[in-house]
Amino acid sequence: MLTDIEIAQGATMLPIQKIAENLGVQDDELELYGRYKAKITDGFINRMADKPYGKLILVTAINPTPAGEGKTTTTVGLGMAMQKIGKKAVIALREPSLGPVFGVKGGAAGGGYAQVVPMEDINLHFTGDFHAITAANNLLCAILDNHLQQGNELGIDPRRINFMRCTDTNDRALRNCVIGMGGKANGVVREDHFQITVASEVMAILCLAESISDLKKRLGNILVAYKYDGSPVYARDLNAQGSMAALLKDALKPNLVQTLENTPALVHGGPFANIAHGCNSVRATKLALKLADYAITEAGFGADLGAEKFLDIKCRKAGLTPSAIVLVATVRALKYNGGVPKTELKTENLEALKKGAVNLEAHIENLSKYGVPVVVALNRFDTDTDAELAYVRQLCEERGAEMALSEVFAKGGEGGRELAEKVVAACEKPNSFHTLYADELSIKEKIECVAKNIYGAANVVYEAAAEKAIAEITALDERYAKFPVCMAKTQYSLSDDPAKLGRPTGFTMTVREVKLSAGAEFVVVLTGAILTMPGLPKAPAAYKIDVDDEGKITGLF
């Protein structure tokens, strides 16, 4: 059996100019990054300004398990399957972070015969977008620390600095550090922190900005610190927004690649959904909507995280309306939620399936609260039995959701025909899309709305630091209280406790920290023990990755 990377390396790719030509993109509207990837220029995006939108399809999933669900694989496979049934589709994905690639999860370019290619490039440096984001983020930090060193004219309190440095690799040793040591010439000594690049506000801003001017405005609005007198300091007060935007001008342009079956894909931006808003860029999504009858995008991790933020943050801010939602699940993952160890998931176990299927049930019910038709994509494995598949289908139908078996991993687009047909039909159903909460609700009311209506919490408690931060944000500017909330929570459970599988109820959710992302225009809410800088496992995926003398990469999955 071939590995993902072996399948990808054996693919017959078309020159990226051919993929672009099929979309109506001219040669002078492409910026080539080698033979098989390119950026689409602002000139083409502006030329498409008056073109109407197609249908927007969101792909999400149940809570992730070690058994695997295949959300990105399904997204890619659905795009290829649309092509098989004669529909024009463009896929809009996030770029993978180097953290998971070298950590536990591995790459994020799909799998099997449903991948975007060139897979190695996409999973590694790609077109350098993440490096540009890291550089812009850390430039602001350098300007801030230089301001402290050069006399601190603004009167910034070094103990109240909100903005932190970032890097796009898992590095727990950088979570908490002291900088400026080594004498007067080396800066002002203060506590600092690192987060992973995909959790940074600069990443969120890049993904939500619609133009260079919007990008620059948002960068200037980043709340950096507070002065000794308690007043705020923004990036614009440090005159940092122009140079940051200069570093990001190319990163703002969407990246064009293709699938194994030459379906066009825009892969752009990459915030995590457990600690950020988890969606690809607004620019890429809107461009996909203008290039095809169906734009198929995905949001990170489970529907309680990525889908909620897609619907409550991205759609709210960008004025998007999804026509259908695809919810990805597997029999194996549901049995895992029902208490079956990973080593025993291949054996039929209807009792455990019924017990664990409450997780799928919760996500169907949650998504129905947004007024958008839902189709469940059940990724089929050879070990799934007829009785297990029949049970899941019945559960979905009883909850008002269509179900389609998906075999795109093994069969590519051909294995997604049933799914594609049902998604097309769902897009024509009545749609009353609305967000979960109104802008006018308070920050606490929004937090509790998500916690109770999506997670199933009975109560929410706030640590002292969170209470103080909410009061400060609310007092700082009345606009900030109207921002949506970006919940940071474990991806493994509907609750804030990763050990609580299935559908926990009656639990109390703990909010330990609240941060204002004034540039991204949302309020980040950290719950439970969630961290914004992951660590590497005992045996990271990096151990298996290598490159030979000819430059061929191995071990990337």
Describe this structure in words.
The chain has 557 residues and is α/β, with parallel strands linked by helices. It has 20 helices and 25 strands. Strands 1, 2, 3, 4, 5, 6, 14, 15, 16, 17, 18 and 19 form a 12-stranded mixed β-sheet that branches. Strand 22 and strand 23 (522-527) form a beta hairpin. The model has no long low-confidence stretch (mean pLDDT 96).
Helix % is 25-40%
Largest sheet: 12 strands, mixed
The total of beta strands comes to 25
Give the strand content.
15-25%
Helical region count? 20
Characteristic terms for this protein:
alpha/beta; four-stranded mixed sheet; 35% helix
Describe how the helices and strands are arranged.
Blueprint (H helix, E strand, L loop, with lengths): L3 H6 L6 H8 L6 E3 L5 E3 L1 H6 L7 E7 L9 H14 L4 E5 L4 H5 L7 E2 L2 E4 L1 H5 L5 H21 L6 E6 L3 E3 L9 E3 L10 E3 L1 E3 L4 H8 L3 H9 L2 E5 L4 E3 L6 H8 L6 E5 L4 E4 L14 H10 L2 E5 L4 H16 L5 E7 H7 L12 H7 L1 H11 L5 E6 L6 H13 L3 E5 L1 H4 L5 H11 L15 H13 L3 E4 L1 H13 L8 E4 L19 E10 L4 E6 L18 E2 L5 E2 L3
Parallel strand pairs: 3-16, 3-17, 4-15, 4-16, 8-11, 17-18, 18-19, 20-22, 21-23
Antiparallel strand pairs: 1-2, 2-14, 5-6, 6-14, 7-12, 9-10, 12-13, 14-15, 22-23, 24-25
Helix pairs in contact: 4-18, 7-8, 7-10, 9-10, 13-14
